[in-house]
Amino acid sequence: MVSAFVALDGVSHAYGARGGSGGTLAVDGLTISVNVGEFCAVVGPSGCGKSTLMKLATGLQFPFKGTVRIAGQVISQPVKIAGMAFQAPTLLPWRTTLDNLLLPLEIVEPHRSEIRRRKADYVARAEQLLTSVGLQGQGSKFPWELSGGMQQRTSLCRALIHEPQLLMLDEPFAALDAFTREELWCVIRDLHAARKITVILVTHDLREAVFLADRVFVMSARPGRVLVERPIELPRPRDLDVTFTPGFQDIVSELRSHIVRARQ
Amino acid sequence: MNSNDLFVRLAPWIYTVVMFLLWEAAVWLFNIPPFFLPPPTAIARAFVDFWGPIYRHSLYTLSTTMIGFGMAVGFGLLLGLLVGWSRSIYAGLYPLMIGFNAIPKVAVVPILVLWFGIGFVPAVLTAFLISFFPIVVNVATGLATIEPELEDVLKALGASKLDIMRKVGIPRTLPYFFGSLKVAITLAFVGSVISESIASNYGIGTLMLQAQAQFQVPLIFAGLIALAFEGIVMYWAMAVLEARMTGWAQRSGFAQA
Ligand SMILES: Nc1ncnc2c1ncn2[C@@H]1O[C@H](COP(=O)(O)OP(=O)(O)OP(=O)(O)O)[C@@H](O)[C@H]1O
Ligand SMILES: [Mg+2]
């Protein structure tokens, strides 16, 4: 059996109802399994429970039914290994870009106890990461001195600085222009290839999902569950040009028709 | 610096001078008796004649106010952090605090006098009691408005509640905290002067009460202006402190237009 890294099994979750099914269901009978090093994308109608899926998979919310396992362990508290990035960059305005990047290292062990001693190492690591997303030399600026796209890159770097095993991205590129977005697709693609991290990406952009993912999950309208699981067999490394090929576009339109049906 | 900037800088002085000029003119024009509303020149005269007492009483009021305010800052910050820390503490304490805040502090002074005698302590305590509430509310608000997504990012890294408080909660609360100091300091003056004019032998409140008994109306107004001056200076000091400590939070161009 392939080792599932993140596994949700028959998971149902309702907000507002303490440990019961009293509230409105956000997801119901959601089963999903993501392998180590795999890149999965989740698409679906708005409000279908995609963000909820992210919270369940990281132990920020607990289901009233079903189990969530990470690396085989049923989780009972927030995971300590995940990097997360959202549609809003959520950087701390009182910290410089560089200090924003160092934040996870001030929290995650073993870095936490070493950050004083190895500060220079960590700063070098942060600067290297900034360079990899095209932000070299911007570390001393405050987030509000950066453009939206630059802030979003910083937010991505913050999600990666502690070299997490699991990267959760919730519509991280939704607020960006098309060119910046495609540029960041490539950044994420390369990071995933270089580090073999497991990535779960929530997106509304089907081209994004197909370009980046090994597998795409299509969710139903609320309460969300997986309707279709679509492996993307396009060979890697993928170049942006692949998005213009008929094969690629076929997959996109296939997914689109699934979502149209899910919305009804 | 262009002429517009210069005008903005001079504006407070110009407005103040114009206000006093209008006041003076109104008194002469409408023939207002000086024991009803003395003209600024008469008040200036009172400042010269009574400079010694005004100075001493002002300093006294400033000290009671600042001690009470200092206590309010310490206590308000602590209570605000506590209230912002836990929902149950919030739920339990909030109604109590609102109720307490609704009590007119004038009504509390006699009790304080009963406990501590007249003079210094009731003035300090009244200043404290009247000024801690806005600090508590602001600090608690700062903590309550942490972006849930940021909290999620940190929790998924294994951050404890204390971590989130230290890394995000407290820094993001600072603008609220320093903002509340400006409100609190002016309230603290209100508190100490109330107490002084009810039960004290010292302070601007007492000075004004005595001046009133002797029908020295310009001196009453001199006391008011001394108070206003202290209030402005301390408010300004808090505003400078705020700008120093939380420059990152004040980047909107809204008020600069
Ligand atoms: N904190 C919350 N409290 C109560 N209900 C919530 C909360 N968060 C989400 N919900 C509800 O759960 C359902 C799923 O929400 P979720 O945020 O997971 O959707 P989503 O798929 O991420 O939507 P979108 O694509 O618009 O981001 C929605 O109906 C929403 O109203
Ligand atoms: Mg969402």
Describe the model.
- The complex is a heterodimer of chains A (264) and B (257).
- The mean pLDDT of chain A is 89.
- In chain A, 42% of the residues are buried.
- Chain A has helices at residues 50-57, 97-102, 111-114, 119-132, 148-160, 178-195, 206-212, 246-263, and strands spanning 4-14, 25-35, 39-43, 65-70, 73-74, 82-85, 166-170, 198-202, 215-219, 226-231.
- Chain A is globular, with a radius of gyration of 19 Å.
- Chain A starts with a strand and ends with a helix.
- Chain A is of the alpha/beta class.
- Chain A has eight helices and ten strands.
- In chain A, the strands form two sheets. In chain A, strands 6-7-8-3-9-10 form a six-stranded mixed sheet, with helices on both faces. In chain A, strands 2-1-4-5 form a four-stranded antiparallel sheet, with helices on one face.
- Chain B is mainly alpha-helical.
- Chain B is built from ten helices and no strands.
- The longest helix of chain B has 38 residues, at 161-198.
- At the A-B interface, strand 6 of A face helix 7 and helix 8 of B.
- The complex binds adenosine-5'-triphosphate and magnesium ion (MG).
Task: Tell me the layout of helices and strands.
The complex is a heterodimer of chains A (264) and B (257).
Chain A lengths: L3 E11 L10 E11 L3 E5 L6 H8 L7 E6 L2 E2 L7 E4 L11 H6 L8 H4 L4 H14 L15 H13 L5 E5 L7 H18 L2 E5 L3 H7 L2 E5 L6 E6 L14 H18 L1
Parallel strand pairs in A: 3-8, 3-9, 6-7, 7-8
Antiparallel strand pairs in A: 1-2, 1-4, 4-5, 9-10
Chain B lengths: L2 H27 L10 H10 L1 H35 L1 H16 L6 H8 L3 H25 L3 H8 L5 H38 L5 H10 L3 H29 L12
Helix pairs in contact in B: 2-10, 3-4, 3-6, 3-8, 3-9, 5-6, 6-8, 8-9, 8-10, 9-10
The structure holds adenosine-5'-triphosphate (ATP) and magnesium ion.
